[in-house]
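User: Can you model how MD6 sits in this protein?
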Amino acid sequence: MGLTHDLFAPVLAGEADPPGLTHLPAFAVPVEQELLAAINAVATAAPFRHMLTPGGQHMSAAMTNCGEVGWVTDRRGYRYDRLDPQTGQPWPPLPACLTQLAGRAAAEAGFASFRPDVCLINRYEPGARMSLHQDRDERDFSAPIVSVSLGLGATFLFGGLKRTDRPHRLPLVHGDVLVWGGPTRLNFHGIAPVMEGCHPAVGRRRLNLTMRKAL
Ligand code: MD6
Ligand code: FE
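Assistant: Here's the modeled complex, given as structure tokens:
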């Protein structure tokens, strides 16, 4: 191998996935239309909103949920709630296409019979981001998390167990699925500010579905 080849090989191959994180490129593309229709139906019953953090800031990503519970944040803190605080109604049920996709993706990553009970839906417009955080509001950390990206691409930041561990940067595009669990379940992670753009099927936004077992 020549010097030039060696220098460019890591770029062409992309950075290896960090251990404890399975990246399934384009895994959700075959069901993209079903997913987008399901998201629209959920958002009709439980509209996207910019929730308030306990610190009093509005999140730059708008959120809604479906499932037995939904993830919420307000002045009182982060938690799962059976009712949508905005409508006073239960969250819309988890559509079968989401549960099935999550089960298949988890199996692919080595987690048999994963059955989520909640899907948090994040909507990012260009400039929106998610700062480094841990997902720790669930009861049982043995279940994995399945995360589906649709629309505009973004850089996923995957750190370690300490906030100060320098994160890997993983580019995600439309249809990519991440599965994550086991020893890295509590790793810090986030989303770098979404770049300007327009996706042919989704428009000027990134949608993320995060399916979890919260109860
Ligand atoms: C997002 N995702 O991709 C934010 N958390 O928009 C998350 O915070 C996340 O993708 C846990 C597991 C997978 C994720
Ligand atoms: Fe998260």
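A couple of observations from the model: The mean pLDDT is 94. The radius of gyration is 17 Å.
User: Helpful, thanks.
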